């Protein structure tokens, strides 16, 4: 069976999910991946989107026993997948639509009724429409009305490099993610200004100019260690080195980096958005803070670093990960979707 995968190639959570699926199921299915977006420049992205349309046409017309697996977020990603879906559906091809969009809710709610009908059409037409958590299931169920039998919950899972056995560095914490407003990195930098004894390791790219300016303006040079984009091996080293991962996001699906941290016994501070509250249970498997609450970020970092039971929290999170979010727990549901007639 041939699985034609279309989605972004921009480094981040969606790209990680696609890579994780392929690396774990490549012996069972014939995957062909095509990147329809990179986020580098608009001309390139238009060319990639058009190439994606040609790919869908080709596999719809000239191949059999082919399934399309579209990975979708919001805005342009929705419109690309909607057009691809219409083409594939015309030729009676199976289409799996996999929703990752952290800001999909706000995207949907500001659209005209005509656009909302198209969104619902795509959800209804997918075979199936995949969401990452119960929270997202309930939201999609609400907007589509009575017919929601094709919505499936398949959470993300992580593939991690071995974590080195080394001693934690006291008061060292970690942020991994895009350097953008939505991820809460700029709130975190402001909080760091009142945590002079804490060192923050940052891995990721995005609005580097704003990031560097804030570090300069807040005089955080001695507290911030910037690593740029980190590969799996370097990420594992940072997991081993730091005491906490913090991701104070405003919107999320179910971030792969949180699952990676849980699997690596690194306690997590995050926010109650998307599917995060289903894995981070305050005081049991991690900590939660409201998005944008910089005072609360400071307090919860101090509290977590001083908690003598921090190791127990990390072990609880690790146990939950392997029980419900490891590849062995998640892949059977995805395998079932691919084999469904």
For the largest sheet, list the strands in their spatial order.
Answer: 2-1-3-4-5-6
Amino-to-carboxy terminus distance:
12 Å
Helical stretch count?
A: 13
**Averaged pLDDT, please?**
95
Describe the structure.
The chain is α/β, with parallel strands linked by helices and 341 residues long. 46% of the residues lie in helices and 17% in strands. The protein contains 13 helices and twelve strands. The chain has a six-stranded parallel sheet with strand order 2-1-3-4-5-6, sandwiched between helices. A six-stranded parallel sheet has the order 9-8-7-10-11-12, sandwiched between helices. Helix 8 links the parallel strand 8 (199-203) and strand 9. Helix 2 packs parallel to helix 3, helix 3 crosses helix 5 and helix 10 packs across helix 12 (310-324). It is globular and about 60 Å long.
Summarize this structure briefly.
This protein has 341 residues and is of the alpha/beta class. It has helices at 13-25, 42-62, 76-90, 104-109, 113-125, 134-144, 185-192, 208-217, 232-241, 256-263, 294-306, 310-324, 327-339; strands spanning 2-8, 30-37, 66-72, 94-99, 129-131, 151-153, 172-176, 199-203, 224-228, 244-247, 268-270, 287-288.
């Amino acid at each position: 069976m041939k699985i034609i995968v279309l989605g972004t190639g921009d480094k981040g959570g969606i790209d990680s999910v696609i890579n994780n699926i392929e690396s774990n199921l490549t012996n069972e299915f014939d995957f062909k991946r095509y990147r329809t977006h990179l986020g580098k420049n608009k001309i390139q992205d238009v060319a990639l989107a058009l190439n994606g349309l040609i790919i869908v046409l080709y596999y719809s017309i000239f191949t059999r026993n082919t399934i399309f697996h579209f990975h979708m977020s919001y805005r342009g990603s929705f419109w690309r997948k909607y057009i691809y879906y219409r083409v594939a559906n015309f030729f009676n091809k199976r289409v799996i639509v996999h929703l990752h969009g952290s800001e999909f809710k706000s995207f949907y709610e500001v659209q005209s009724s005509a656009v909302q009908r198209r969104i619902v059409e795509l959800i209804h037409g997918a075979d199936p429409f995949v969401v990452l958590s119960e929270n997202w299931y309930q939201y999609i169920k609400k907007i589509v009305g009575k017919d929601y039998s094709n919505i499936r919950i398949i959470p993300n899972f992580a593939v991690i490099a071995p974590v080195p056995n080394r001693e934690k560095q006291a008061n060292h914490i970690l942020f991994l993610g895009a350097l953008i407003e939505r991820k809460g990195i700029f709130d975190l930098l402001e909080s760091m200004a009142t945590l002079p004894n804490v060192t923050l390791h940052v891995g990721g790219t995005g609005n580097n100019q704003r990031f560097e300016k804030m570090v300069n303006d807040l005089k955080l040079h001695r507290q911030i260690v910037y690593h740029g984009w980190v590969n799996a091996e370097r990420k594992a080293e940072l997991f081993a080195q730091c005491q906490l991962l913090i991701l104070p996001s405003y919107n999320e699906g179910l971030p792969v980096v949180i699952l990676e941290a849980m699997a690596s016994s690194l306690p997590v501070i995050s926010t109650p958005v998307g599917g995060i509250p289903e894995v981070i249970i305050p005081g049991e498997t991690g900590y939660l803070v409201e998005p944008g609450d910089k005072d609360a970020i400071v307090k919860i970092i101090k509290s977590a670093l001083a908690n003598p039971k921090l190791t127990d929290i990390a072990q609880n999170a690790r146990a939950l990960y392997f029980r419900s979010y490891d590849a062995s727990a998640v892949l059977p549901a995805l395998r079932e979707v691919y084999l469904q007639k």
